[in-house]
Structures are given as C-alpha cells and as structure tokens.
Amino acid sequence: MLPAKRPAVFLSLAVLFTSLTACANTPVAKNLEQSLAADQRLQNNPVVFEESQGNQSQAQQNDSTVQLPADFPRDIPLYANAKLQEVKPASDSENRVSTRWLSSDPSNLIASFYRSQLQTNNWQILQQPTDDGVGVFEARRSNSLLKVSIQPQSVTNATPNQPQTATQLLIEYVPNNSTATAQSTPATNPNKTTNDVPQPGDPQFIGPVPPVNLASQPPSTANNQPVPTAIPESQTFNDLNKVPQESRQHIQDLAALGVLSIESKTTKSNSAGTTNQFEPSKIITRREYARWLIAANNTMYANNPAKQIRLASESTQPAFSDLSSKDPDFPAIQGLAEAGLISSPLSGDSTAVLFRPDAPLTREVLLLWKLPLDTRQALPAANLEAVKQTWGFQDAARIDSQALRAVLADFQNGEQSNIRRVFGYTTLFQPKKPVTRAEAATVLWYFGTQGEGVSATEALKSKRSPT
Predict the structure, then answer these.
(1) Comparing C-alpha atoms, which of 441, 446, 442 is closest to residue 458?
(2) Using only C-alpha atoms, what is the Rg of the chain?
C-alpha cells in the first residue's frame, strides 16, 4: 500500500514548488517566505533558546559563591559529599553560627560518618540520632560546642512516606571568641584562674559531668581529705519529682556514688545558675546501660577486686563489628563481653556479631545482663512452663529463650528480685518494652541475692566513712 502512495506525494510537492516559483513576487509568497525565515532575535541573542538552562547555571553559580566563614573551626568534621547552601552568622541575640548543607547520600550513612568522626576526634557526644540516622548530634570538645541536625528530604514534603532523595544537614557551632568570652567571666570558685576550663559547680560549666573512674580507687578530695558527707551539687538532679517516690532514693544514692553523673545534663537558667536534668522517663540505650552496669558494679565492690569487671584496652580486638575500639564506651562493653556477661562470639554465640549500642534496652535484656552479677554463677536452665508457674506471666511465651533463665533466677531472689523492685506486682512482663533511665537505675541499686548482697545505700555509707 505504501509504495503506491509515493507518486502522489511527489506530485503534490512538485505542484507546490511550481506554484511558489510562479508566484514568487505575489504578497502571499512574500508572507510565506518570511514565516519560514530564521528568527533574527535568535541570531542576535542565542541564549533565549536556553533560558531554563541559563537559570539553572545561574543558581549553581550562586550556590558556589556561598563560602564557610574564615574562622570556621577546623576540628569540625565536614561530610565530603555535602554542598554548602547557606551560612547564617552569629547575631547579637544568639552567638551560634548556622550552616546549611545538602547531600544526595542517605541520612543513616551521614549519621554513621559523624558518629565515627566525633568519637575518633575525641568529641564528647551529649546526644545522637536514632538508629535510622534521623536526629541531632550534640557534642562538646574543650571550649567548642557543636550541633549537627540530620534531616532526610523526600520527593514532596507533603507526604512523609515518599522515598528519600537527599539529606539536609544543619551544622551549628559557637565561635571560639564567643566561647572564650563566656569562659573569661569570673567564676564562683576562688581557686579557678581565667585559663582554667570551668568545672562542675561553676556557673559557666556546660555538662555533662565527666565519667567517674571505674577502676574504683579510694575516694578522696584534691588535698587527700575524706569525701564530705554532703552530695556534690554536680551530682544532684532537679527533676526527680517526675520519678515515683519509691525510686527516688535509689537514683539519689547512685548519683551520690557517681554512677549516674555521667548522664546528667546541665542547662542554664536565668536565675538559678546551673541545674542537672536526669530525664527519668527517657529511654535508655544499650550502650548507656552497659556503662552504668559496669560502673555500679565496680563502685559497689570497690573493696573487693575479685568481684570487679576489668575494662578492656583499645588494643583489644573488638568482639562486635559495629563497635570500634575508639568508641568511648568500648572499654565497658568489650569488658562485659570478655567477662562472658553479654552474648558475643567470644562466648560462643556466632550470631551475636552486632552489639547495636544505640538501640533501646528492653526489659528482657535488662535482666539478662544483670542477673549473672547478682548470682555470681551460671544461670539455671529454664523453660516456658517453669516461668509461668513461678511468675504467672500471661505473656511468658514472648520472652526470649535465653532471657527465660534470667527471669527464673530473678524469682529466686524473693523480695530482692529486680522485677519486683522495679515493676512491682504485675502479671505482664512485656519483655520487648523499652526501659527508662529511672527503671535502669532502680535495677542497679542492689547487687546480690536475698541472703547476701550490697545496696547503693550501704556502698555510700562505706564511701563516706573511710576506715
């Protein structure tokens, strides 16, 4: 069919060209010639055709002109695949400098970078994002304060379930000159010079309180005098009114021993100077509980080295693939693994290759790590029926098989049972439920069995009354 139509097409074109040639000087021909001619504006201004590309190039050029301040601290890590979008200098009302960045990489990858860099460069991490990499890093090193906010960007902001296409970074810091000015303010401590870093108790101190020495040395002050009976101000909390009455003394005792002071947050108020926040309702992470567990045990058994847990050194081969030897909590976590108190490849559990340090601590793990330090012996064999008959938990079937042993052993502690002390009377254990900081502190208040053990109250009396 197609070959038959070709002669007709050629014939039509021939007629058209003949007509144009014959009528070359007519008005119709002139109009047709002008409509087919090249646009003179395009010849004189070729960029009209590339208007959209020109706008994009101009935008990129504008972005490239955004530069970091000349005094941007060199010790602040910068993500390589992030492009600077905006810089907001410090104002009279706020000393913080803000820089906004954009990266095409996923948020969890960027969060992993900053977690590693901050730890490697000796930043003291005060807050960090969740496991999915969304949230805020707050860190402190010497006189530098840093805040890194990580927020994923989606195709449309209206629908949060859209796939992530980019990640926005907001890096905020306090300039050195601002920090230096704040530090030069005379402190209430008469022994402090202008070159000293503010210490806990000073109005200019920005928390948290440095970690206690877990290698339990006899407590003393700088002049080798006995520790006073009054609890230091830096180890008290002003939000314990949010804690149930039966747990307040437990937290106060542990704070006085220095076990919980490493987690206190110091905030400034207009008139009251500095105040410490315990945040009792906040969920505790696995790393925090491991740190508290080894600190509480070693402090309470300060006079019994045989019951203390040895901290690991940085030269030790890590037991978990997600915990570097440079991690600030590596000595405690690795020490627990090497003592066989938590499951790891060292204890023969080839599946426990990840520690997940920033994951929430669950109730069953809370007991699984604590009970071996109470009984000081292997946990008993246990099954589902045994736990049902002793505790009567309606949800006993949800408890992990390994944790069943700890739950059963805890029942044998009678009134000193961790479950009874923390959760009271209950027929639901809720093994997968996250643990709060107040609940974790209440568990760590006592080590031992019903017939033999030591409480934080007893350890505090021994500490305050040296022999």
Answers:
(1) 446
(2) 34
103 pLDDT exceeds 80?
A: yes
> How far apart, in Å, are the Cα atoms of 431 and each of 42, 49, 240, 375, 412?
74, 66, 26, 21, 19
What is the rounded end-to-end Cα distance, in angstroms, of the chain? Answer: 114
Q: Does the pLDDT at position 169 exceed 70?
A: yes
Spell out the domain ranges in the chain: 71-180, 286-361+434-464
How far, in Å, CA of 252 to CA of 238, rounded? 11
Q: How far is it, in rounded angstroms, from Cα 80 to Cα 78? A: 6
| Confidence class for position 242, pLDDT limits 50, 70, 90 | confident
pTM: 0.51
User: Do the bridges between strand 97-103 and strand 164-173 make them parallel or antiparallel, or are there none, so unpaired?
Assistant: antiparallel
Q: What is the pLDDT of residues 417-448, one digit of tens each?
A: 999 999 999 999 999 999 999 999 999 999 99
Chain mean position to CA 456: 29
Of 107, 101, 150, nearest to 127 (Cα)? Answer: 150
Q: What is the chain's mean pLDDT, rounded?
A: 74
Q: How far is CA 256 from CA 215, 227, 229, 230, 296, in A?
A: 17, 11, 10, 9, 11
